[in-house]
Amino acid sequence: MVHGQPDCVCASLPEQRKAAIDPLKAFLYLALVSVLGLPAEAMADPGTQRILNVGYYEFAPAIYTDAYGTARGELAELTRRVARQAGYGVRFRALPSARLYGALESGSIDLWPGAQGKPELAAHTLEGRHTLSQINLNLYHRAGTPAPRIPEDLAGKALILIGGYSYWPNINTLLEDPALDLRLLRTSNHLSALEMLRRKRGDYLLDYQIPVEQARQRLQMEELPYLRLTQVPIHFIVSRHAQDAEAVVTALDQAYESLRAAGEDLSLPSD
Predict the structure, then answer these.
(1) CA distances (Å), 220 to each of 42, 142, 200, 204, 223, in order?
(2) Are the CB atoms for 196 and 111 separated by under 8 Å?
């Protein structure tokens, strides 16, 4: 210490430095908020930001896992945007449908951008207000063959399905009807399903329109005739067992509305 300098001056130096640094830190955070358009509460203390565990199953091109293990697709990007606006981070996890539903029932997955109205999830989930997209579940048949009458023309036929997908009670009732004696042929992806139909290894294909269209274009196949069996609205589905589940679904709804009111394009491909 310099001779003659009061002790209180040295003791106050840390407080002086803190007083000088903290306003600068606050200014930098505010600058980041204004530049990036992030909610202030999400930037105020990154160490305490809530991370939502987001579950999904492979549904290219809407949402899928790329070669680096990252969730991609327009539905994944919309989920990131809305969650960020609501003040949340996200951690994506790809799961088969049965495990995804189990994770929503246990609360190990907080959020699923998926199908509204799944009966088996009703007691375990809360649904967001907004329809993010709509997808069609169709029954495809080969060009040049007549459209089947449902259900009588399915009797004794071979029906191609994608493994890991689940359906609604009315569809499951059809698939499990012993009077129809359906032969259910399961395959792992949409490309192989279309190849099976083209090579007459099955009579009909039960599949969703968005991934079928992508696969059909990759295979350079002609357009396939189909019957629409049901249309599925896509919403944010929050596990009731997640921490502050009601607050999460409300925050996501409000964030979606805020982005839409600001003129942002939230549209997703729909059938």
Answers:
(1) 45, 15, 17, 19, 9
(2) no
Complete DSSP assignment for 104-115: HHHTS--EEEEE
| Cα angle 226, 231, 236; round to 5 | 140
0.85 exceeded by pTM: no
Enter the DSSP assignment of 70: -
- Strand partners for 207: 138
Per-residue pLDDT of the chain (271 residues; tens, 9 = 90+): 444 444 444 444 444 444 444 555 554 544 444 444 443 333 435 568 899 999 999 999 999 999 999 999 999 999 999 999 999 999 999 999 999 999 999 999 999 999 999 999 999 999 999 999 999 999 999 999 999 999 999 999 999 999 988 888 899 999 999 999 999 999 999 999 999 999 999 999 999 999 999 999 999 999 999 999 999 999 999 999 999 999 999 999 999 999 999 999 999 876 5
Q: How far, in Å, are 180, 181, 197 from residue 151 at the CA level?
A: 8, 11, 19
Q: Which domains are assigned to the chain?
A: 40-134+236-261 (3.40.190.10), 135-231 (3.40.190.10)
Q: Which amino acid is at 97?
A: S
- Tokens for 130, please give them: 């907004």
Residue 94 and residue 113 in contact, taking contact as beta carbons nearer than 8 Å:
no
Q: Given the DSSP bridges, would you call strands 125-127 and 111-115 parallel, antiparallel or unpaired? A: unpaired
